[in-house]
Design brief:
Blueprint (H helix, E strand, L loop, with lengths): L3 E4 L9 H6 L1 E3 L10 H7 L5 E3 L8 H7 L5 E3 L10 H6 L3 E3 L2 H20 L2 H8 L21 E5 L3 H12 L3 E5 L6 H7 L1 E3 L2 H7 L2 E4 L13 H4 L7 E4 L8 H9 L5 E4 L10 H4 L4 E3 L8 H20 L14
Parallel strand pairs: 1-2, 1-3, 3-4, 4-5, 6-7, 6-9, 7-8, 9-10, 10-11, 11-12
Helix pairs in contact: 2-3, 5-7, 5-13
Length: about 325
């Protein structure tokens, strides 16, 4: 009997081709973007695998509903804060994620946000479209160059290192803070210097948030931390919204306490604070770090390979450790 896989979102089929050949895969019906939580709750007891998306909540109620058949939650994202990992482990349900494909596109976007804020690209674009709104003089529309500036990276994992590579190519100085210092070989590769958290905040011209979200990183950047930053500092967050206290950041931006911010994620999900929307010195994007045609298919291939290898053997990007059921 084929294993059954329930996919919560109606994605491109190209990346799922191999999975569809091997297993019984259910997508939302044509014309529907996603299954609702209640629909998944009703269907889940008939499936071995739940292929969730980063914005789909997988809680105790849902996982208990899937027992005894549910063996695997394969998340379509590198982050997994949408899943109750301790409960999954307790119930013997494996959880996987997709770290590989998201690295380069997320670093691309983080670097793009740095450049857009520093050179005021979206600001002057908006005003250029309004007759008489833009001043055409030599000292108007001034921004900051990237070359020679210091980039402080919070979280020197895959994405942090990919961003460091881009920064080095742009003649920036790289410093970083991490839970654990990376190897001397990695530091040498990116000419990156390890510093304490406060020193990074005080000395960086650009600060990029690349840490995973957890109870320990909730509001890692808040009023106290923002007050340590340079008046010319630019904060970029492509990780998770609640890592930054959004209202404290909006206050700092509106009062020109820091130069600007580039945000791809927001504290309250897809409900962007009106205070942030009012900031001309903020460049905002709707969580599009991995929103490219090629990456969407690469992520589908990766999540499919996690499922196939879980059953047939091969590398799997596990988030937790559980005993495989016989």
């Amino acid at each position: 009997m084929k294993k059954r896989v329930l996919v919560t979102y109606n994605m491109f089929r190209t990346g799922y081709a191999e999975l569809i050949k091997k297993y019984d895969v259910t997508f939302p019906p044509e014309g529907r973007e996603t299954f609702t939580y209640d629909e998944v709750y009703e269907m889940l007891p008939e499936y071995d695998v739940l292929q969730s998306m980063f914005n789909f909540p997988v809680d105790r109620k849902l996982m208990e509903r899937g027992l005894p058949r549910l063996e695997l939650v394969s998340n379509y994202a590198v982050g997994f804060d949408n899943i109750d990992i301790p409960t999954a482990t307790e119930l013997g349900i494996a959880v996987t994620n997709t770290p590989g494909p998201v690295t380069e596109p997320t670093a691309d976007l983080a670097f793009g946000l740095m450049l857009a804020v520093a050179r005021r690209i979206t600001d002057v674009d908006r005003r250029l479209r309004i007759p008489g709104a833009l001043e055409w003089t030599l000292l108007a529309n001034l921004g900051y160059s990237l070359g020679g500036k210091t980039l402080g990276i919070l979280g020197m994992g895959r994405i942090g290192q990919a961003l460091a590579r881009r920064a080095k190519a742009s003649c920036m100085n790289v410093i970083y803070h991490n839970r654990h210092r990376v190897s001397p070989e990695i530091e040498q590769q990116y000419d990156a210097k390890y510093v304490e958290f406060e020193e990074l905040l005080k000395t960086s011209d650009f600060i990029s948030v690349n840490v995973p979200y957890s109870k320990d990183t909730w509001h890692l950047i808040s009023k106290e931390q923002i007050e340590l930053m340079k008046p010319t500092a630019i904060l970029v967050n492509t990780a998770r919204g609640p890592i930054v206290d959004e209202l404290a950041l909006a206050d700092a931006l509106n009062n020109k306490r820091i130069w600007g911010a580039g945000l791809d994620v927001f504290e309250f999900g897809d409900k962007v604070s009106p205070e942030i929307l009012a900031c001309d010195n903020a460049v905002i994007t709707p969580h599009v770090g991995t929103q490219t045609y090629d990456v969407r298919n690469e992520m589908a291939e990766f999540v499919s390979r996690n499922i196939i290898n879980f059953y047939e053997g091969g590398p799997v990007a596990f988030v937790n450790k559980v005993e495989k059921r016989k």
